[in-house]
Structures
1.
Amino acid sequence: MSKQRRNRAWYGKLDRDGFIHRSWMKNQGFPDHAFDGRPIIGICNTWSELTPCNAGLRDLAEGVKRGVWEAGGFPVEFPVISLGETQMKPTAMLFRNLLAMDVEESIRAYGIDGVVLLGGCDKTTPGQLMGAASVDLPTIVVSSGPMLNGKWQGKDIGSGTDVWKFSEAVRAGEMSLADFMAAESGMSRSVGTCMTMGTASTMASLVEAMGMSLPTNAALPAVDARRKALTHMTGRRIVEMVDEELAMSKILTREAFLNAIRVNAAVGGSTNAVVHLLAIAGRVGVELTLDDFNLGSELPLLVNCMPSGEYLMEDFAYAGGMPVVLRELSGHLDRANTVMGVDVSAYGEGAECWNRDVIRTVDDPLKPGAGLRVLRGNLAPNGAIIKPSAATEGLLEHEGEAFVFENIEDLKANIDRDDLPVTPDTILVLKGCGPKGYPGMPEVGNMPIPARLVKEGVRDMVRISDARMSGTAFGTVILHVSPEAQAGGTLAVVKTGDRIRLSVKGGSLELLVSDEELNKRCEDWTPDPAHYDRGYAKMYIDHVLQADQGGDLDFLVGKDTRPVTRESH
């Protein structure tokens, strides 16, 4: 091999250090010629039995290895922290940045030339991309893929979306507890991520739209043999990318991020895409702001998947998946490079749609103007977001009195009180659930409808918080209010009885209190004492950025591509 690769600093030396690096690797049975200068490909695996979404990644890693060997590379698999969205407390988002640190330092410290990121569960994909972007080697993503469609009582049910509906039906007395428990067993029928267009499927879709994966990565079911074939082809391609020196920064340009925002609108993607794309852009050094997300507000919703539609990811895959969406949006996308070394428009060339009820055309969309909307005003000086495609249209222009929950414990203790003084026009406000406040910015923004109103048939209300919500959730929910309450944002001083005005059309969110009164409240406000005083959580609270900046740690923004020069011996 004539090309001097990064791995030569580890395995190419004919001295004591080279001896040690090669010799210890040989205890796994690797022969001499594995260290002849060929590309060494790291397979960054977030497999874990505590992350059910990623439980199939062990098998997918074997497919990547086959492809790497076939292309003349040397595959080496390594683990990083895995974030089980449904299993971790207080919230997996608290640990996204920790995963990013793990990925970054692992890639930098080991003698690898390119990386395949194996992830899927909500925070694993953005965390891996953030970490890899800060080192900027040739990198490609393979997502774990969605679960098979849920099945119960002869119909399809979707993870997350139907859970919220079933839960409200039980609270309303419309569904028995026995039926609720029976549906549990039919919901998750295979390994894989949520089969709704939740955050995991959204991020997989955006990864494909940004050119960071091979075509069809977004939607193929986790247990479909075609996904394993995709991993084989990914292994082949990463070796070629190393030869071409096709680093992440050559793919993740501003144009790629703007394309992701447009595609997020078309697929009815998660609000969580906002904090993740902002954080990834910060690592690459791309200028991206919260206001850029208004770019998708006029684009139509094309993908008829829960929670904005009725189908599931398995149906989306069989209808043609992301290549069809990219073809439909071809007139709206910027030119941008991909891991294939071609413009992203090539991903949609020749794509055929096999079910027009699942993937609509731009001329006949599911909903017009369905992208995320950024809101600003004295209640959210640095911005907040709402997902109109998952909201009740009649509530998108609304004024009402606030009923305030000071924290999540207050909400849980009082939401089901029979004497809760609320009406369908009341605006529910939740504080203390932002990046610093919870900590970690949990998915609790889609607050339950008060039990008394649920029994009266109410299924949606305007809800405002500094929290996030699951990508599988729905409702007229205003999220990511910035600055958060714990950081002294206006949200901290909202009182029950205050009037709030929401205008999604006008992009505004206003607390109807005089400036004089607001200033007095802010002067009298003091933050809650920190709940964590040690370990990673303390470091997180001390350094986390606000939601409008992506929620990364301030000292991690940017990248460091300097070579490692000091030996470990």
2.
Amino acid sequence: MQRRELLTRALTLGAVPWLAPMVSRAAEPENWQAQFAASREPWAPAFATPAGDYPLTKARVRGRFPDAVTGTLYRNGPAGHDLGGERYHHWFDGDGMVQRFVIEGTEVHHQGRYVATAKWVAEMKAGRRLTEGFGTVFSGRDEVSAPDDMNVANIGVLPLGGELLALWEGGSATRLDLRTLQTRGPKTWRADLAGAPFSAHPRTEPDGTVWNFGVYAQRSLLLLYEIAPDGALRRADALALGETPLVHDFVVTEKHLVFLLPPLVYDAQRRAAGASVLDAHVWRPGRGLRALVIDKADWARRQEFRLPPGFLFHLGNAWEEETASGTVIHLDFARSDDARGLLVDTRELMRGRAGGTPGPRLTVVELRLRSGEATQTDLGIEAEFPVIDPRRVGRQHRQVFHATGTPGGLPLWNAIAATDVTTGASQRYSHGPQTIVEEHLFVPDGSGPGWLIGTVHDLAQKKTVLSCFAADALRDGPVAQATLPYALPLGLHGAFVSEPRLADGVVCDRTDCQRARAA
């Protein structure tokens, strides 16, 4: 079968329900909302549901943000966990909310807004959940007939073509206004791609080319996208996967796309019996962790490697070198021994409990294309949310910046680190035992070492703090911080858009700016 035929068949859903269970699972006997409300954990408010959007608000700034970080930091994450007396059973189910931090010297303004997907609009109007989530099945709800019926646009963002795309995992990207965060509707790359999965982890090369993928678990297909810097789709097609793993991220090199396929695989029979999308996946370590390498120029040219079993959410970067023995691909990722973090810990958060599974560790891999050999080295450093200098995407790199340091009694991490993946040398900065860090992003500054910016949930202050660090001197602490008068729900991924200087008309509506600056 030709690949274009595969794509056509995958996208012609007809009357076949998309991932819909044949039998409704009985409602859970526990009241998850009541359990969460009864939690006395100091970190529980980080997973509470905001009552509504956050209007434009001026932050309190200490120090001065460098000129290189004049611009806007966008962040996305699950925020709407409760509705109509019910609480989702997994952190990744929550309605997406995009945060916007506008940075200029000694002024920072914040705005947050729920992404108005079709699901969110319908459920807000009804005052209750109408469809299931990624990890939650409510009994007696509407049948899911297409991926976007479950779309909560809650994982990442992609600034592209004059818009901001809010990204989910299993359906359309959602278009937002860069300045107001107003939702403009789903992004359709091509008529036959309407509603197709578009992952939350696109990779943007230094020349602006965007690569992405999507997984049709129920049809065992991997969709690939190549997008021009102006946002125009260059090509898209589908590849048959066979057994379908849960894939969250990938990396690119100069000539290849590289996927790590964990042995957490989709089981259609579980789904048909009423399991959630998440619970339809089964851990089968005997399959090992597979590395799939795809030629950028010819997607039909593929090579597969086998690594020891393990699980991952995120990769840092990949690059390739030509040696006397052929092409070698180097990559790094945050590896866990198994999928308990996804299957247990991120579920327990919705009850107000900390799971306690050890965090992933920074791991480097070499793939030798000629011999088919693969080697893996654990650097022994706890790491999650790995990022690099965006100018090094697909190129040789040394530094990976990441979250680290699991504090006792708290979920997630409380420190950031810069690790040299060639030597394992690492430096870090801890925000303190009563903090939870989120993903930090690298912002280039000409030929200088650059900057690292990101947010932390300060449990003691009950506030969210935006910090800026010199990328080569994390131990010295922040050079500038902006403290909001409130704490935001913990989120996932973001993007930074640089501006040479921000005028009122760029930052916000003039009236709102005047109000924020007067506050």
3.
Amino acid sequence: MFQTLRNRHFFFSDLFLLPLAVYASYVLRLERFALENSFWMGLLVFALCATAVTTATFRLGGVYSRYWRYASVDEMLLLMGAVSVATFVSGAVSFLLLWLLPVNWVLPRSIPLIYLLLALAVTAVPRLAVRTWTIYERRTQQGLNMQRVLIMGAGDAGSMMAREMLQTVRLRMTPVGFVDDDPAKQGMRIHGIPVLGGREDIPALVNQFDTRQVIIALPTAPGKVVREIASICEKARVQTKIIPGIYELLDGTVSVNQLRDVDIEDLLRREAVQTDITAVQTLLHGKRVLITGGGGSIGSELCRQVLRCDPAELVIVGHGENSVFTIYHELRRLFPGAAKITPVIADVRFAERITAVLQRHRPQVVFHAAAHKHVPLMEMNPGEAITNNVQGTRNLLAAAQAADVQHFVMISTDKAVNPTSIMGASKRAAELLVHQAAKVTGRPYVAVRFGNVLGSRGSVVLTFRQQIAAGGPVTVTHPDMKRFFMTIPEAVQLVLQAATIGNGGEAFVLDMGEPVKIIDLARDLIELSGLEVGRDIDIELTGMRPGEKLFEELFVPGEDYRRTTHEKIFLAANASGLVPHDLMALVDALVAAAEREDVSGIYRGLQNLIPEFGPVRDTVVGNGKQEASEAVVGTAVPSQPVYVQS
């Protein structure tokens, strides 16, 4: 009915209704319909002024450029403001004319005030009629196979989700109600949609309203809450969708297009971390930033978040051309007006090449994310771990010092603490090199440790999904094995935050919450796939692989750790004090052994460099940090991998 209405129709409506509002103002003021000539002349002057000024104000203020089928509070506030300004101006002009011209025109002083209320009514009612009809039309579309949904969360995200469904018929989704655990919201209405109860009411509401889907609109909810809601929905046999977590919604916007199935990242989600965006933007704005490993999981997310801070240039360094190509073109698409983005294919193991790259681009901030990180694979290829993770870091640090880099952040791992694997030991050696460079330069060259990253390449989650897709079994090495987990956006935000508070030589450790049992992770993934453990997919236990520990640790023995000004970041301030005095000589010997493929020499070199390196039987938790327990006596050189079926 109203689909063909345009703003020109509202313009003609205003031309007709605004003079009537002026006449009605006189009638209300004088309490009679018949007016004397003196009142008629005053009415005519004010009507002409009010109509001309109001329509002009609407034009200048953008009232005639709004799409009133989807009007909201913003449009109504704009209309109120425009009418108020127009009434003030037209009243002032009318009184001025009456004062300047020697005529017998009467304009009572209360007329503009009465007119203001009537003008708001006659301009708002036609526009609200269009909006009301649109809502009515939208809600009568129920017979068009509309999917009936419940929205869990009556906050900002849920409100935006409901509004988009109401406004967009092609989505074929109609919200029948909200669900929220806040008693103050229950019984209220949002966009005309009732808040029907709490999460425990979902099964009954699903049956009552024949609901096909529940949308979890809680971007800041911790994983425990998401897990409980997902479990309730599973028992109610209703499809569950979720909006991304707060780390994925960096711009704060929520759309139906962002809906996805509940994933393992949602079940492990922690409470939102408050990031000091201003400090990060101050550090990176207008700077030249270089990221090694820029095509990898962590590196590519670093690129996305760094570009949001408007650097002068972003240099993406990577060894694999396909990954660099992919992230480069993604960034050009996502940030068309962004700073200069330069892709560079280079291997950190080649000192001359890396030095040339840094001399050409002269970065002021370097994030070093390039590394070999697969524990079992590096056990089989120890020379590659050393040349890439240790020698590559030394090459990059030397080039950074020569290029006068102001900030240097190396992405490390919790496996570098009391390492039992080649990968962990190589990252610990790289940390020592960063601390040494910080002592030499006096600049904020720091290392940041965190645990397993969900969704990264080689993540156990990807392995489990592949095993589930193949029909199982899902293999877990040990029933008590635990790991710390973070999402990629969360890890990168905290890395950027750590970069702003580093002074040099520190090791920053990110608070990853409680460690998660790998076997629980496997069960969750099987259930999220709509399958049942033991009936559809089996979980099989295998022996622990070389280099693995039951528990990961956070701090090296001797490190004095404490919380920083950021609640989610720990600091080991004395990390640089643990650097051996003959570090460079020890690294030289280690790299030389790696280059000649001397495996025994590599292990001897690592033990000389890192005395705590060696297999451990188990670890225990004490006083808020992980501590190594009894070491296994014997050589640290592992045998070939042996997989034991339990």
